[in-house]
Amino acid sequence: MRKILFSIAQRRYGLMLEEAEDVVQEAWLLFLERRGVVRSASAWLAGTVANLCRRQIDRSVRSRKRFVDDTGIENLPNGQAGAETGIAVRQALAGLDKGSQNLCKLIAFDGYAYKEV
What we know:
It is a single chain. By secondary structure, the chain is mainly alpha-helical. The protein has helices spanning about 1-10, 15-35, 40-65, 85-95, 100-110. Residues about 65-70 and about 75-80 have low confidence and may be disordered.
């Protein structure tokens, strides 16, 4: 079950490893509290992990920190970037140095070709 639960958290919902570990652990704790009323452990755990992932994403959206130069991400059309994608992009950019951030923003958001930049 561990692989499946982590797969739901990381692949389906795009959570980082630490977030996925927290969600899976919380799901197991909830399962232990309610194991007497749960009929199908695997289905219950999968559904609980999915619900906890959505809750984690909602929390992240509400409390997300904005970059000082965070122009461009919020200007993407909704078809290109939903809330989950915006969070993933911000997290990825946060791990880069300022030069790499600017390079990514010029190419991805401003539409410059790599050779032009």
